[in-house]
Every structure is written in C-alpha cells, then in structure tokens.
Design goal:
Helix content: 25-40%
Number of strands: 10
Strand content: 15-25%
Shape: globular
Radius of gyration: 19 Å
Mean pLDDT: 89
Structural class: alpha/beta
Low-confidence stretches: 264-277
Distance between the termini: 28 Å
Bound molecules: adenosine-5'-triphosphate, nickel (II) ion
C-alpha cells in the first residue's frame, strides 16, 4: 500500500447542502476520498449520485449563496474549503484543474478560445503573450485538434462539443497541476479521440506525477486507467479500494451490483496492459 505517502488531495467528511425555496436539500453527505501522488482514482456511481457536484465543491466552484460545503478538502496539505476567492483563483488551474462534464460551461461565450487559453496561462505563469500563445497552440496540437492556430481565433460556439472538450483538456494539462479532476472527459468524443485523450492523461501522469480523479460511467476506462476506485451511492462514498481488489472482491453490495451490470467482455481481470503510445 501507499500509506507512507502523503495524499495530494484529501477530502474528509464532505457534506454539500443546497438551499432551495422548499428548504435544505442534502446533496452529498459523507464523502471521504484521498489521492496519492501520481495515482489515478476512478470515481464511479449511478447518475445523480453526486460525482460532479463533489468535483465542483473540491474546486470551490459551487455558488456559496445557494450551497453550503462542510468538511475538509486538503490540497497539498492546504485547506481549500472556505478559502477566499482570490486565493482559490490562484490555485485553480495551477495546482488543481477540472475538466468539466459540460465543456460549454467552462468557457466564456464572448471571448475567443485563444484569448481564454492565453489568459489562463498568463494568470499562473510569467510567460509573455507570445510564449503563452505558443504553449496554447502546442497543447491544442497535443490533443489532436486540427489547425490549432485557427481554433485559437474561434469562439466557443463555433466548435463542436468534442472539440471544446479537447480544448479544455489541453488547458487543464498545460500548466502541469498536481491534481486533475476529469469529469467524464471522453463522453463527447469518438472512439479514436477517447483513446487519444486517455493516453494524453496517462502520459501527463507518468511524466509529471500528476494525480487524477477520473469520473466515468465506463468501467472499461476504469479498468485501463485507474489504480484505485471509489464508489459513490446517493451522496456517499461506500467503498474505495485498489482496482484489482475492487473488481475481484467488491465489499459493498452496491459495488457488486454496479460491476454485475458491466458488459461480459469485462467479466475477467481488468487488464493493466494499456501502454500509452
Ligand atoms: N446547484 C444545485 N442545487 C440543487 N441541486 C443540485 C445542484 N447541482 C446538482 N444538484 C443535484 O445534485 C444531485 C447530484 O448531481 P451530480 O450532477 O453531482 O450527479 P452525477 O453523479 O455527476 O451524475 P451524472 O453521472 O449524471 O453526471 C442531483 O440530484 C442534482 O439534481
Ligand atoms: Ni456528473
């Protein structure tokens, strides 16, 4: 086990409550989750169980007027819950990045892709505008976007969902954060690009020791990518274990049910033979 290493990200006792006109509604109540350096933790669980809202709360992106976050979210030993917005802005993107489930939400509709990428890079680095431009273009190239220079000049609405997703991935990885949260990073992509994006994430992880929280409904992706898996049900993490142990000996009844719903081709040992090109 990796108990001797300090967790990069440690979430404990996380509770998220929404304030609605009808009263308080608990959305997440009891999330404990930790990621060691350079590890990929898969987060699975049925639709609506609270995966996306957990990742938004880690990033401190939930509206504080309508939601309350209780518990502790430690990134490299520093408490994020309740941090002032400016301090959080300096961390977000630089130390921890989120690839959002819905890429449209990640961009301003009125600014070009280039403007937004360059601004993100320059907020966190001392690069000149030209250097930031070059870094953005080469990152877009890495996620296989054809004609990155043209993409830089376009507005979000001019790109398909899949293209925007790849722009978001490029922006998320280019500053080498210590943690990347990838919320369904491949759902908007065709099979070739799914593989390319997963390889890109895996390459980043091996090259820079980046930790990844990978949210997906695809157990094949979990089998290929994850070292550990956390299983979420109705706002709680019910089990977190090594991927082999979880697939072979799921402890929780809900995990057993999730795994039994997987396609037959996954019914044997998860292969760890996925070799990034
Ligand atoms: N701002 C909000 N206010 C109130 N309820 C919310 C808010 N955001 C999300 N919810 C609710 O919280 C629950 C969890 O939603 P969430 O998007 O985190 O699920 P998920 O596990 O990511 O699902 P999926 O797999 O479909 O993406 C849902 O019932 C959703 O309707
Ligand atoms: Ni979600």
């Amino acid at each position: 086990m990796t108990a001797q290493l300090d967790a990069v990200l440690q979430v404990s006792g996380l509770r998220i409550t929404a304030r609605t006109p009808l009263g308080e509604k608990p959305l997440v109540h009891g999330v404990d989750l930790e990621i060691q350096p350079g590890r990929v933790v898969g987060l699975i669980g049925e639709s609506g169980c609270g995966k996306s809202i957990t990742s938004l709360s880690i990033m401190q992106l939930l509206d504080r007027k309508t939601t309350t976050i209780e518990g502790s979210i430690r990134l490299n030993g520093r408490e994020l819950n309740g941090l002032r917005s400016e301090s959080m802005r300096a961390i977000r993107g630089k130390e921890i990045a989120l690839i959002m489930q819905n890429p449209m939400n990640a961009f301003s509709p009125v600014l070009t892709i280039g403007h937004q990428c360059i601004e993100t890079i320059r907020t966190h680095t001392t690069l000149s505008k030209k250097q930031a431009y070059e870094l953005a273009v080469s990152s877009l190239h890495d996620v296989n976007l054809p004609d990155p220079a043209a993409v830089m000049k376009q507005y979000p609405f001019q790109l398909s969902g899949g293209m925007l997703q790849r722009v978001m991935i490029a922006t998320a990885v280019c500053l080498r954060p210590s943690v990347i949260i990838a919320d369904e990073p491949t759902t908007a992509l065709d099979v070739d690009n799914q593989l390319r994006v997963l390889r890109q994430l895996d390459r980043i992880r091996s090259a820079y020791g980046t930790s990844i929280l990978l949210i997906t409904h695809d157990l094949g992706v979990i089998a290929e990518m994850a070292d550990e898996v956390a299983v979420m049900q109705s706002g709680r993490i019910v089990e977190q274990a090594d991927v082999f142990r979880l697939f072979d000996h799921p402890q929780h009844e809900y995990t057993q049910r999730l795994l039994n719903a997987r396609p037959a081709f996954l019914a044997h040992q998860p292969s760890k033979e996925f070799v990034p090109a």
